[in-house]
Design goal:
The structure is a single chain. The radius of gyration is 19 Å and the shape is globular. It has one domain: MFS general substrate transporter like domains (Growth Hormone, Chain: A, Up-down Bundle), CATH 1.20.1250. By secondary structure, the chain is mostly helical. Helix content is about 80%, strand content about 0%.
Length: about 375
């Protein structure tokens, strides 16, 4: 169960990381400015926000396992059409679908991770996100190298093959959802409980900076700091590397110090790293700043989603769907705004401004106490 869901987190991260070094290539191929590329990324964000609630509703009705089985297979082929888009109009349509597919799989795998947490009676969410970051590291770092050596299509094809193999190998081992009474027919409803929405804000303001680095870090290094293609891929790669290390340690850190303390220290470190990257005068210093920011960002979203999936009186699928949808609004819509700021001002101003969002997360940190599940009962792994 745990191995399968971890592998699928890795696969999703591999695809998203593989997308990062494609951004400057797509901008150059289609003759797009920062503002134009921001609109393309906006289509990706809209696709995610509009389609993800449907995934959440389906999970509430049939469970996370069948939804994850389907979305992981569809997601494995999602990057290649982006690269093959012959003109901008078709690219925008494909990006809308791309965002919906990535986001739907994200909700399903997070919901399934909560199922595994409850079965095991201990936190695993941070380590699952660690595998996502590890996949992002491979996708971004190797992606830039592959594009430089072979080309954009070849890089996307390699990601597609690797993702498909992982999806096929993992899908039959996905954890079954917790049993329900035979007369229960769960339905997805938006709740009036404010807790998942507040946790959604925590995810939102944590994921906006992460999304900005993902979508704009490579272009910032190439355009403003003179980095080459291979080096520019290390912008998100550096974040993914430090996030992976910290996320693998995150479950133990949360268990030792508690969710609230973990979040509070993490926000300070994340803000310091973004400030360092924004003020950098060379690619090396910017990459170091992004890496430091990744240390802080690492456990913010896993803790927020674990808290959303363990809110009293709410099914995991409902809390996670709300928090994840709001968070994805940040990681996907936020960078579109960054593109406009960069077009009319600079990436430096944009990254300085993003550090302020971590102050808001710090103010909301007390609600993440629901992620402390050390006393959660163990649920048998059979059904």
């Amino acid at each position: 169960m745990r191995v399968a869901v971890s592998a699928l987190f890795f696969m999703n991260g591999l695809i998203v990381g593989g997308w990062a070094p494609q951004v400057p290539e797509l901008a150059a191929r289609h003759g797009l400015s920062e503002a134009d590329m921001g609109l393309v990324i906006l289509a990706l964000g809209l696709g995610s926000i509009l389609i993800m609630p449907l995934s959440g509703a389906l999970i509430a009705r049939v469970g996370s396992r069948p939804v994850l089985r389907v979305t992981c297979l569809v997601c494995s082929a999602a990057l290649l059409p982006v690269v093959l888009a012959p003109h901008v109009v078709l690219l925008v349509i494909i990006m809308f679908i791309f965002g919906g597919i990535i986001g739907s799989m994200d909700i399903a795998m997070n919901a399934n991770a909560v199922v595994v947490e409850r079965r095991l009676g201990r936190a695993i969410m941070s380590s699952c996100h660690g595998f996502w970051s590890l996949g992002g590291l491979f996708g971004a770092a190797l992606g830039g190298w592959l594009i430089d050596r072979a080309g954009s299509f070849e890089q996307a094809a390699a990601v597609t093959v690797a993702a498909f193999v992982i999806a096929m190998a993992s899908s039959r081992f996905i954890a079954p959802d917790l049993p329900l009474a035979s007369d229960v027919k769960p339905k997805f409803r938006l709740t009036l409980n404010p807790m998942p929405y507040v946790l959604g804000l925590v995810a939102l303001f944590s994921m906006v900076p992460e999304g900005a680095i993902l979508d704009w870090g490579a272009l910032y290094l190439r355009q403003d700091l003179g980095a080459d293609v291979a080096t520019s891929g290390l912008a998100f790669g550096a974040v993914a590397a430090t996030m992976a290390v910290m996320r693998f340690a995150g479950d133990a850190v949360r268990q030792r110090f508690g969710a609230v303390t973990t979040v509070r220290y993490s926000t300070v470190i994340a803000a310091a790293g973004l400030i360092m990257a924004a003020g950098a005068q060379s690619p090396g210093w910017a990459i170091a700043g992004f890496a430091l920011s990744g240390i802080g960002i690492a456990n913010l979203v896993p803790v927020a989603l674990s808290a959303a999936g363990n809110l009293p009186g709410l099914p995991p699928g409902v809390g996670i769907s709300i928090a994840t949808s709001m968070g994805y609004g940040g990681i996907l819509l936020g960078p579109a705004v960054i593109g406009f700021i960069a077009e009319y001002n600079s990436f430096t101003v944009a990254f300085y401004g993003l550090s302020v969002l971590f102050g808001i997360v710090l103010l909301l940190s007390s609600i993440t106490r629901h992620a402390d599940i050390g006393e959660a009962p163990v649920v048998p792994a059979t059904q």
